[in-house]
Specification:
single chain; 373 residues; alpha/beta; TIM Barrel; 13 helices; 19 strands; elongated; binds pyridoxal-5'-phosphate; Ala_racemase/Decarboxylase_C; Ala_racemase_pyridoxalP-BS; pyridoxal phosphate; Ala_racemase; alanine racemase activity
Length: 373
């Protein structure tokens, strides 16, 4: 697809990403480092554009999920960065991973053994990281296996462990008792590992974890969503700047001639005399269909914005908004609908779609024209 075959305009504010990085960094105690999670193509916004901006903002610790994401990132950034693979290394890919200078997060003793066996030179393995499960029960070494690993001193001494990580399950609910339980378990794991590997760094907090306070920060924090404008402290005013603006051009403006239903399934009715704006952009572009009948947009009339409701089901390529509230002059000047901007945030769309801002971001389609500021 060439640039002028794309429709709809997705604007991504890289200055806002840099400002969000600076804000998160300012929350840390002295000596704490702020990393950045740029997995899944920087949550759909484009790692090739976002990562260099974060580098210039001072970030040196980058986290991705897959090896190819890490390899692409390494080609893009100066050599003084650390790139950590959050979902580790596939069996058989250890050497390639080490040669690319990528740091895999290992979660079993067997993985540590293979890493040492496959990547060691002069008795020391290539740098790696270890993840322990502190209570989320997702990726991470369980308590029993971790205790047993601590006994394998020779293995640990040659493993070149740079970092110990864990992940919080409930950081976006500050009052949830699991946060403190996970913090205490992680603290104990870090102390125990430092008996054997004194220089290992520790990392626990994602975006919301940063908002839980300094105790949760350890050496390196790993914010993702907050860099891209998602509110890391739900229930409080969002300290992050909005990063995305999504504009959908008008395809047809129509006056409804008699009371009738709109769209597939005839799920919603509008009265005779209503005005509807049909715009380019549907669920194939990441406008989740679950927001049908609950979503909002803002009519774009020059520099003026008027909030208008979605009507009927989101289709694959088009969506319908009720613009009856506009005056005839405003209607005449209507060019399209913004569905993401500083008022209509990814969090708000996530609410309307029964999901979270993260999924709105990672669903953003490839058919839009993308502009980076
Ligand atoms: C995705 C991810 C993060 C970033 O989380 P946010 O909530 O987006 O800040 C941090 N750590 C791990 C292990 C992750 O998988």
């Amino acid at each position: 697809m060439t640039e002028d075959e794309r429709e709809g305009l997705l604007s991504i504010d890289l200055e806002a990403v840099a400002a969000n990085y600076a804000w998160l960094n300012s929350q840390l105690k002295r000596g704490g480092r702020c990393g950045a999670v740029v997995k899944a193509d920087a949550y759909g916004l484009g790692a090739a554009e976002v990562a260099p901006v974060l580098y210039r903002a001072g970030c040196r610790d980058f986290f991705v999920s897959l090896q190819y994401e890490g390899e692409q990132l390494a080609a893009l950034l100066p050599a003084d960065v650390r790139i950590v693979l959050l979902t580790g290394v596939r069996p058989g890919c250890e050497q390639r991973c080490a040669e690319a200078g990528l740091i895999p997060v290992l979660v079993t003793t067997e993985q540590v053994q293979s890493w040492v066996a496959q990547t060691s030179a002069n008795g020391v393995a290539a740098p790696c990281a270890l993840k322990v499960d502190s209570g989320m029960t997702r990726l991470g070494m369980g308590a029993t296996e971790f205790s047993a690993l601590l006994q394998q001193r020779e293995l640990l001494r040659t493993a070149n462990l740079q970092m110990i990580l864990s992940h919080l399950a409930c950081a976006d609910e500050p009052a949830h008792p699991q946060n403190r339980r996970q913090l205490e378990r992680f603290q104990r794991s870090v102390e125990a590992l430092r008996q054997v590997c004194p220089d290992v760094e520790a990392s626990l907090a994602n975006s919301s974890g940063i908002c839980l306070g300094e105790e949760y920060h350890f050496d390196v924090v790993r914010p993702g969503c907050a860099l891209y404008g998602v509110n890391p402290c739900p229930g409080y005013q969002n300290p992050m700047q909005p990063v995305v603006n999504l504009y959908l051009p008008l395809l047809q403006l129509r006056e409804v001639e008699a009371d009738c239903a709109v769209g597939y399934g005839a799920t919603e009715s509008v009265a005779s005399g209503s005005w509807l704006a049909v715009v380019r952009g549907g669920y194939a572009d990441g406008l989740l269909r679950t927001q049908s009948g609950r979503g909002w947009g803002q009519a774009v009339i020059g520099s003026e914005r008027v909030t208008v409701p979605m009507r009927g089901r989101v289709s694959m390529d088009t969506t319908v908004f009720d613009v009856s509230a506009l005056s005839p002059t405003q209607r005449a000047a209507l060019t399209g609908i913004e569905i993401l901007n500083s008022v209509l945030t990814v969090d708000r769309m996530g609410d309307a779609a029964g999901t979270i801002g993260y999924e709105i971001l990672t669903s953003l389609g490839r058919r839009y024209c993308r502009r980076y500021h």
